[in-house]
Amino acid sequence: MAHPDLLTLLLADARLPVAGHTQSGTLEGAVMAGLGAADVPSYLRTRLRGVTRVEAGTALAARRAVLDRTPLADVETAWAARTVAPAVRSASRVQARTLLRLCAQVWPDAAAPLQAVPGASRAVALGAVAAGLGIGAEALARLVAYDDVQTVCAAALKLLPLDPAAVTGWVVDALPLVEDLVTATAGVAEPDDIPAVGVPQIEVWAQAHARTTRRLFRA
Fold it and tell me: Which Gene Ontology terms cover its molecular function (predicted)?
């Protein structure tokens, strides 16, 4: 097995075929509703304090469940209770299926615990796989948060007239908030510990986006 740091970098690589390029972190729905380029940094901050914090906490709880041999299904239930929008749940499960197809070929032992949770969310799948690969809790939370920031920023370049260097600056500016998220979720060990933070406007945009047939991104 490769060093966990290298495996974390691999999982964070946008070139990995895990459907990340099909996602915008609901940015496309927000842009359709009138969100402009100047609003994207605040959108990133809002996600990191809300949606992404739930995702990171879920991944940490799933990692711990695999290590402690407790039911992963309880983590999935807790995630679903905190993820109100059906469109967000659906998109997450599509991403999880793609991740599991990859892991079944590359790291089958790490993916094995997910057989007990058909239709798992991406956060649960990622947490379970991280446990099997020896990725630590902080590295996992950092991976979830960084991936979310990059997903939104990569989508922004396709949806809005932007300078790529300026968008890279947005990523850099978001990194301290990524570390805040890591600190905030560090103590998550049980399903009940997963943060319950809702962002109703993002959920509304996600639902509206799911209904349109004219879009670039799955979600």
Answer: nickel cation binding
